[in-house]
Amino acid sequence: MTEQRHRRDRDRLYGVDRPPARQRDAFASGEIPVAVYGLGKMGLPVAAVFAETTGNVRGADIDPDVVASINDGNCHLKREPGLPSLVGETVADDALSATTSPREAAERASVHVVIVPTPITDENEPDLSVLDAVTEAIGAGLDAGDLVLVECTVPPRTTSDRVLPALEDASGLDRGEFGLAFCPERTASGRALADIRGAYPKVVGGVDAESTRAATAVYETINDEGVIAVADAATAEAVKVFEGLYRDVNIALANELATFTDEFGIDVRDAIEVANTQPYCDIHDPGPGVGGHCIPFYPYFVIEPFETDAPLLRTARAVNDSMPSYTVDTLREAFAAERTELADTAIALLGLTYRPGVEETRASPALGIADRLAAFGAEVYGVDPVLDSFEPFEERGLTPVSLEDLYDRPVDGAVLVTPHEEFDAIRWDDLEREGGRLVVVDGRAALEDATIAETDHRVIVIGGETDE
Prior knowledge:
40% of the residues lie in helices and 12% in strands. It is α/β, with parallel strands linked by helices.
């Protein structure tokens, strides 16, 4: 028993009275084993950076193909600069390994990093079932002195009101015998390693002062921008959610202003750009909608779990959710001015992912646009150079085609949803509409410098100047 206790004193951060520099050194040297739960888009980069720093990481994921790939030194994520080589190097150095058993990972670790999905249900309620399952597994392997760090975005008070009691129940330990802090990931797909290593300071908030102190020691070893320690876990949770809410509300303002373009008779984007030269103004860009696994969902982490009404957040969601329909209606009205029904057209949908260069279609505006085009009876071609699977779009009647194949198709119009850099090379003069010019809705004001300017095609920019 004495030997076990001494071992635990050496390989833990929580509840040990050692100078901060000594604790950081102990963590970086690999004395303190780390487990990372969830090896997806954000989890694998986190695990790889911890492995690079400590040389002692076990990752856990329920997908056996993901685990096998990592243990072979491969990276299942695409378009994440530097990650494939980092995974290969850390696996080869025995610094990183993976398992399908969260319980196994928990039993060997002293620091537990949770970064699992937190989606919403069909009723727009936060779905914390994956977090609950991982929490139970960690609790079953939790020892006194362990430190649990939750990185996945959750509603405020989840860590203290839900995770803490679950860990106590599963472990038989009392609060104060182990550490627990919320430390949100502040990472974007396509730049994960740079963000984790220090594009922004790391935010940490513990359920007690010792948890905050220990979490700070962990993240100071991997984040060059340092750590911002806040009052408690709920504050840290709110920081992460607020970041997404700000963007959703701001984009909704830009999108609503864009709908006034014709009545104002101005280029709304130009007005926004000039307004933003005033230091207290920072209006975002309008567009065909808001997608991804963050911004469209985070408002419901506040709207649904709490009794206080949130009319602004609800309105912002409604505005942003309406933009795919607005985009298609803009196209439909342009054809109607030519006495052409949308049902008689073939439309190219350019960019199906929610962001350029990122292979992710969750909540992409292209989904709603494809649905509405199909509802009007249009034939829809989908072009996206970063996607391998078009399944959610094919279910909507969309026909996937490559950019080269598009030149051989009869096309009447196009909607630019996501400006992948590959679209800069579109030969617009080779896209000919029988009996007239193409009608193009540019959802991102991305075609201003494209070769389309040299054609007779009609270009309508959402929130921008219309080419009549």
